[in-house]
Amino acid sequence: MIDNKNNTYDLIVVGSGAAGIMASIAAGRDGKKVLLLEKLSKISSKLKATGGGKCNLTNTLSNEDFMKSFGKNGRFMRDAIEQLDSKDLRVFFKSIDVETDSPDGFRVFPIGHNSTTIINALMDELNRVNVEILLNQKVTDIIINKNQCSGVYVSNNAYFAKNVVIATGGLGYPQLGAEGDGFKITSKHGHTVTDLFPAMMPLHTKEIWSDCTADTIAKVEMKVAIPKYKKLKAKGDLIFTKKGIRGPVVLDFAKEITPLIEKFGEVPILVNLTKGKNQEEIRMLLKQLNEKYRDFSILELLSEFLPTSVSCNLLKMSDIDYTQKYNKISGNKRDNLIQFLTWTPFTVVGHDGFKMAMITRGGISLKEINPKNMESKLIKNLYFCGEVVDLDGPCGGYNLQWSFSSGYLAGKSIKV
């Protein structure tokens, strides 16, 4: 083993995703001697793929609303967000010559919507603040002396530092290097890793509406049809696939569904495809359309507010002839149609696992991390940031903002 004790760093950062890079830059800007270790042959592989390569950095929500979007654990991030919120993040990127915009008034992207712009600018800043970067360095363990972290082991080598930041991410996209290294390393030294599930991913359903794949259904509402879990809900756009469903509403809801699939095998859900309309509103809408378009078939009436492909599936479920006039449909079948229009039943039966998961639900227990500085409560001078901790948010720049904010707080908080 090579002895690097004579070359001690102020900080070693393990992992070169958004959180690890920001921790390195924050410490580097403060004049600290920083070593950034990445096990792959290049930095930021997952950041490059974020948002389909468009890199949705953050969003325009207030800090309070941003934290609420993470659920009951959202308050944990208060100190990190107050140190670097969405406005601060945009200022940071402007300081490294990356302009941002928000075309829809909510999501924030780099001008040009290209993640390469972000990575190149971050790399330039890492170099400017003299962060040393070593690639192809898989950290196998941390070095602990008297309950204090003092370095890391890498294959047949060791690197020593006064502080260590674990920013290894979760288990999503293993082809981009995610193998849960941080979970394995820190659990050996007493840290609790909560149950891990794939999240932000498409879902497979028993009901296949592959003839609807060309259509995006806007403002869909979705809920779990199990009494004990009826409070689990999501809203957003829905897209049908050859295996089931995807789209923003599904990506957001997947983190609630994947644990239930493991528990029950399959999960019944109810989907409102009519922008939240209830039965009475739908009944009134159909009546009004029927009066306006007296010669229309029921399929033509439904196609006034739903894609024709979706309308066909709903009529098939209701055992209604597409060519029938609305007034000629029997009362029972009409009631069934209105019920299906209000809440269409689907059964989630599976998913593609972590290989298609953008994020991981679960991680290092928040109870064991000090939110004021992201330091371990169990091991001194050991810090965590980003997806490796038990915090995950919905689509829309939430998770990247959290990674940047927590990385910034950790990098600013190290002790020298």
In words, what does this structure look like?
This protein has 416 residues and is of the alpha+beta class. It folds into 2 domains: 11-196 and 361-413, FAD/NAD(P)-binding domain, CATH 3.50.50.60; 202-351, Helicase, Ruva Protein, domain 3 (Orthogonal Bundle). The protein contains 13 helices and 21 strands. A 6-stranded antiparallel beta barrel has the order 12-15-14-13-16-17. The chain has a 5-stranded parallel beta sheet with strand order 6-2-1-10-21, covered by helices on one side. The chain is elongated and about 85 Å long. The relative contact order is 0.19. The model has no long low-confidence stretch (mean pLDDT 95).
Attribute tags:
single chain; alpha+beta; FAD/NAD(P)-binding domain; Helicase, Ruva Protein, domain 3; six-stranded antiparallel beta barrel; 13 helices; 21 strands
Give a quick summary of the entry:
The protein is built from 13 helices and 21 strands. By secondary structure, it is of the alpha+beta class.
Q: Secondary-structure blueprint of this entry?
A:
Elements lengths: L10 E4 L3 H12 L4 E4 L7 H5 L8 E2 L3 H6 L9 H6 L2 H10 L4 E2 L5 E4 L4 H14 L3 E3 L4 E7 L2 E7 L2 E4 L3 E3 L14 H7 L9 E3 L3 E3 L10 E9 L8 E8 L3 E3 L1 H17 L2 E6 L6 H14 L5 H5 L5 H10 L13 H12 L1 E7 L8 E3 L7 E2 L4 E2 L5 E3 L13 H16 L3
